[in-house]
Design a protein that fits this description.
The chain is an alpha+beta fold and about 140 residues long. Helices cover about 35% and strands about 20% of the residues. It is built from 5 helices and 4 strands; from the N terminus they run αααααββββ. The chain has a 4-stranded antiparallel β-sheet, covered by helices on one side. The radius of gyration is 34 Å and the shape is rod-shaped.
């Protein structure tokens, strides 16, 4: 006996399996869009930081004395002058502004005025010699 009465049981619908492309569809996912923005900002910041990172060059040191204060930290941190003779230093940095000609104890190079909020402060790069070679490089601010 069959009746045409409606039944309360729902017909079972078989779930469709997601395809691989559905897992990588980022068009409508806000979290992934924000993540992409942050990732892009990180990549751009890394590129700009690397691009604008100043490295020491003899040409920049000799041709633009007003930018020497930017190069002083590089000279001190990289220790490129340590162990060099006075002639090698003159070849690398040019003739010093002030030096002890008799004993060759130090060379001094004017770096210019460091920009500060209270006004510019005069800065000097001081190279100390022992036994004819540079042993210490410091920056002095007056």
């Amino acid at each position: 006996m069959s009746s045409n009465k409606p039944t309360l049981a729902k017909p079972s619908i078989k779930k469709q399996r997601k395809g691989l492309k559905d897992y990588f569809d980022y068009r409508n996912n806000l979290v992934n869009q924000v993540g992409l923005i942050f990732f892009s900002a990180f990549v751009l910041a890394t590129i700009f930081t690397h691009e604008f990172n100043l490295s020491f060059s003899e040409e920049l040191w000799k041709e633009e004395p007003a930018k020497r204060y930017k190069l002083a930290d590089i000279i001190i941190d990289s220790e490129i002058c340590i162990g060099k003779t006075s002639e090698e230093i003159k070849s690398l940095l040019g003739r010093p502004g002030d030096y002890d000609s008799d004993e060759k104890v130090f060379f001094s190079y004017y770096l210019g005025n460091r920009p500060t909020f209270s006004g510019g402060e005069k800065a000097y790069l001081i190279l100390h010699f022992e036994n004819g070679r540079v042993t210490r490089v410091i920056e002095e601010i007056n």
